[in-house]
Amino acid sequence: MLTKIITEDNIHKAKKLINRSHKIVIVVHTYPDGDALGSSLGLWHFLSELGKSVNVIVPDGYPSYYKWMPGSEGIIVADRQHKYAGELISSADLIFCLDFNELRRTAILEPFLRDSKAKKIMIDHHPDPVKFCDVIISHPEMSSTAELVFRFICRMGMFEYVNLFCAECIYTGMMTDTGAFTFNSNRPDIFFIISELLKTGIDRDAIYSRIYNRHSVDRVRLQGYVLYNKMKIYEKYHTSLIALSHEEHQRFNIQRGDTEGFVNIPLSMGDIIFSAFIREDKDVVKISLRSKDSFPCNRFAAEVYGGGGHLNASGGEFCGTLDEAIQKFEENLENYKELLVLNH
Ligand code: 5GP
Ligand code: MN
To answer: Hey, which of 105, 130, 256, 314 would you mutate to test ligand 1's pocket, going by the most ligand atoms within 8 Å of its Cβ?
Structure first.
């Protein structure tokens, strides 16, 4: 049996909103990851099974290795279909906000969401939600938003509407947000949920392979270049940094998603507990942070770059040059030196 996490009140309110809605939209955060896509497509399959008219809208593109996900062909990418995304949001009577908890995270969609009169339901697992939704299902202790979507459906007593496609999407979200169940995955409920998903016929091994074993030659060579030439180690702080310039992105023909996962690699070293990956985009510098144990990389992201995220996985954006972003990172290590210590 699954422990009851989502309150009866939230389930009651959400169910009422779903029942009376005809046009539903699901939105996620910018640079959609496996959990944003998995949770939104999982919910999309469920609501479609209920007979609802529903669309998934993402602010911008996502890595090609998620394109196998059932339902992804219908996703509306707002920076390519801006007008259509706006029309769908303004005519929706219910909007699900998945895997983010502040409107700023929806980038190009933010003005549409601010103007929308639709009721809104947040389902999310990031700390400190901003209260812009009518129903807030926010549980930072959960592995993923996809896990919450599964719980949401079950708590409404509708598990029979979880078909194979829905289950594949939910599993993908849970898997990618836990590094294939290597962190944030100690609660027994997670494995109960997986066993329920397996009953629908999902193939865990195949899903793992579709995400993690589909790299191009270019991507694997880039990984070699990055680790050999670009990784900087700050021994005193048990920290590493990889920074890639816009010029390097062009030189190596880097596509969206090609650098995904690089930030985790330095944590495979026993003496590294904090890892940063900084990449220069066209108009912004994007920061990705990861940590082991109790080092709060979300605090670092918030204090240094105005970003946020989870204890061990966070990010932010920096408006300035790549060198300035790196300098800021290095300067702040000293402020965190008491926390940048080995526990083993
Ligand atoms: P990633 O490094 O994969 O882009 O992001 C890791 C985590 O940090 C995710 O949980 C994501 O939601 C969060 N995150 C990434 N960028 C930002 C940001 O600019 N602002 C906030 N608040 N969170 C972010
Ligand atoms: Mn997530």
So the answer is: 314
